[in-house]
Design brief:
Distance between the termini: 79 Å
Structural class: alpha+beta
Number of helices: 23
Largest sheet: 7 strands, mixed
Helix content: 40-55%
Shape: elongated
């Protein structure tokens, strides 16, 4: 992006008319240090004058060294007819070469310098005015700095058109940018093509290999099909593996997002951290959604997570997933997503009242006896005892009913919507044309956002104290120091609800145990039993909510109040919900930053530091020239160093993994010659009646008016055809 044009010796010179002609007459005999300097000078002169330049004839000696070079107007010469104009699919390009004679000739001297030996300044076409000069091709160039900045913004999900708008704002207008929007599109695509020169999958594997060098805990595993094409892919970084050691008791996964060039489903394996936020344990891109594929992914996941199996798994109920879970995680408890079940209930039964009643049965904290009674009542009320979907749900109640899942830890995770939330984030920045490398970078950005939110919650939990809402200040205060803010919010709700219960006398004491029977306010039929071991301080409640969620229930808290406890006993503290939940995690160092992003970070830092310099140096001509000369010197020095480092560090990718077959693009079908289906009903656009169109509409032929709804309410029959009769709205 050219903020200040570098034209000849003056950075802001803009010559017109006689001044440009005077400069042209004086350029013969000018000396340049290199062939490149002469070319840059002529481009600047062309921009000032209002035409575009290009290289023309090159003369070499016997050895092959360039001895003379012509620089001419881009409209010099004439177009050569390459192909016939018959049956062309595209319109021919506009004619730009019309035989213009304007040119200069530079020749090499004996002292390895270059001298302008000839100049012709007359053009046979009008020159561009000042406002059109940004479109001259020879002076349009997207610099490496522009490409680097554009790449950083593209990685952040900013569109190319928006990046161009930002460049225009930064440079003070379109005429100062130095290129047009099409140039920016081409430059970005050229970079992408160079990155994928060995194929999309090979570029992705090379990208992962680079991450493994930066992150010792990075894990990747993939499989190939018979034609050596990528089949399945799974990866995770050291932070995900470390999080799994702390929060790997619950996992959830789903396969719904397929917006990539190959139509492959994405399968994020997620969990819940101590702030009740979604964390990602691993990502898989699948070839299909069969049981064998799911089994391969789960085995790769198990290998990455040090063979530690989860105790609870939540999925969308896919049968292939269920078979894979039984094979790989035979001891894990499986739960079907409540959101998918509610949607299926509405799709199969089609009654919103039944869907509401089903959701209530699914999530209520009942005993199995209470659930069976209520479920039978709902099914009988809607008369759907023999419906196939209901029969199937009767056989799988242990996978979806809270009454049958109570007592097994699920951490309050009931659906796979945590996977859907990641898919929603990816849908913003991805489309069906994106490659795997785009896919992975978008996923990494989403994971980075999740980890930033977790870090923010760590800060809030460590640096703030929640406001107490009860009079049990000691018990509530100790819990606020122990739990994260999100977990304490759940605890605080249970502590407030404990006032709804009262003790039924007497307390039963047998040995070391004390048994408390509690009833709820205005609901004496429901009795909860809490058993306290006075030696181990272990509390067991008949509702079993603590075993299911991991937070003490209101019944247990009521007993603690009766026993004058000021702190929670250790038996009621689940470490995964506390502020120190990650202290026992392996000390992996998170190097989850690619070299490209590190380079962009350095670029942004230097740009920010130089902003003040640019502002101060632009105040006077003297400071401007001094800063400009120093920047030119440093740029030339660092450019040589970086070029040498890039050439010495180039490594060749020796992998030969073929890209998967791209999914076919759905093209719009041409229905012009297609015979309409007899089952389709067509309506007249004039009267909105069926059986005819506007051309054959009898009402239109009779020029009869329609009512406000395009239909009439009275008809008479004539020759077996219904003809609408207008209503007499205003009387006889």
């Amino acid at each position: 992006m050219e903020l200040v044009p570098n034209v000849v010796d003056n950075c802001s010179i803009d010559l017109h008319g006689a001044e440009a002609k005077c400069l042209a007459d004086n350029i013969v005999g000018m000396i340049f240090e290199s062939h490149f300097d002469a070319w840059e000078f002529y481009k600047d002169y062309a921009k000032i004058s209002g035409f575009s330049a290009r290289r023309a004839t090159t003369r070499k000696d016997a050895v092959g060294n360039v001895k003379a070079q012509e620089f001419c107007c881009s409209r010099a010469g004439f177009r050569k007819s390459k192909i016939s104009d018959v049956d062309r699919q595209r319109a021919p390009r506009a004619i730009t070469r019309i035989g213009c004679k304007a040119k200069v000739v530079v020749m090499s001297t004996n002292s390895n310098q270059w001298r302008i030996s000839f100049s012709h300044t007359e053009h046979n076409h009008p020159l561009c005015p000042t406002n059109m000069r940004p479109f001259l091709r020879s002076n349009r160039k997207v610099t490496c700095a522009d490409i680097a900045e554009a790449r950083a913004m593209k990685t952040a999900g900013i569109r190319t058109s928006q990046i161009m708008n930002l460049f225009q704002q930064q440079s003070g207008g379109f005429h100062n940018v130095g290129f047009i929007k099409k140039d920016l599109y081409n430059a970005i695509q050229t970079y992408v093509d160079a990155e994928l020169c060995d194929g999309d999958v090979n570029a992705l594997i090379a990208y992962f290999d680079c991450k493994k060098e930066q992150d010792n805990g990075f894990f990747i595993q993939y499989s190939l099909d018979e034609s050596l094409r990528l089949h399945n892919l799974f990866w995770c970084d050291s932070t995900s593996r470390s999080d799994y050691t702390c929060f790997g008791d619950i996992i959830a996964f789903d396969t719904t997002y397929k917006a990539n060039a190959y139509g492959r489903p994405l399968m994020p394996i997620v969990g819940v951290n101590h702030h009740h936020q979604t964390i990602v344990f691993g990502i898989a891109i699948l070839a299909d959604e069969t049981a064998d594929t799911f089994e391969w992914v789960l085995r790769a996941f198990l290998e990455a997570m040090f063979n530690k199996t989860p105790i609870s798994v939540v999925t969308d109920g896919d049968r292939a997933m269920q078979r894979a879970i039984k094979t790989v995680f035979p001891l894990a408890r499986h739960r079907i997503c409540s959101w998918h079940l509610s949607r299926n209930a509405q799709a199969n039964i089609g009654d919103k009242k039944f869907t509401a009643a089903f959701s209530r049965c699914m999530s209520a904290w009942w005993t199995t006896t209470e659930f069976d009674r209520e479920w039978r009542s709902v099914v009988k009320h809607f008369n759907i005892e023999d419906h196939p979907w209901v029969v199937e749900k009767d056989q799988t109640q242990h996978l979806w009913a809270q009454a049958y899942l109570t007592g097994h830890f699920f951490g309050n995770v009931r659906s796979t919507q945590r996977c859907e939330s990641m898919n929603a984030v990816l849908a913003i920045v991805l489309n069906s044309k994106k490659t795997y490398i785009d896919f992975v970078r978008a996923i990494e950005n989403a994971i980075t956002d999740m980890r930033i939110k977790e870090l923010k919650e760590d800060f809030v939990s460590a640096q703030t104290t929640p406001y107490p809402t009860t009079k049990l200040t000691d018990l509530e205060g100790s819990a606020s120091e122990l739990y994260t803010r999100a977990s304490f919010g759940i605890f605080q709700t249970e502590l407030q609800n404990e006032t709804l219960y009262r003790l039924m006398e007497p307390i039963v004491e047998i040995g070391q145990s004390r048994t408390f029977h509690l009833t709820k306010y205005r609901d004496p039929s429901k009795i909860y039993e809490v058993v306290l071991n006075v030696i181990t301080e272990n509390l067991m409640c008949s509702c079993r909510k603590f075993e299911t969620v991991g937070i003490p229930c209101c019944h247990q808290l009521h007993v603690l109040k009766l026993q004058d406890y000021s702190n929670l006993p250790q038996s009621l503290i689940l470490h995964r919900w506390t502020k120190n939940a990650k202290l026992s995690a392996p000390s992996f160092i998170d190097f989850n930053v690619s070299p490209e992003l590190k380079q962009m970070s350095r670029f942004a830092s230097l740009r920010s530091m130089s902003s003040r310099l640019c502002y101060v140096a632009s105040q006077t001509d003297e400071t401007f020239r001094s800063a400009k000369d120093e920047i030119v010197r440093l740029t030339a020095e660092f450019d040589e160093t970086c070029t040498f480092m890039a050439s010495s560090s180039h490594t060749e990718n020796k992998r030969n993994v073929q890209d998967p077959r791209r999914k076919p693009v759905k093209r719009k079908q041409n229905h012009k010659n297609q015979v309409p289906s007899s089952s389709r009903k067509y309506h007249c656009s004039f009267c909105n009646m069926e059986g005819h169109n506007k051309n054959t509409c009898p009402r239109l032929k009779l020029q009869l008016p329609t009512n406000s709804y395009g239909q009439t309410s009275t008809f008479f029959e004539e020759d077996d055809m219904e003809i609408p009769v207008p209503l007499n709205l205003f009387g006889p």
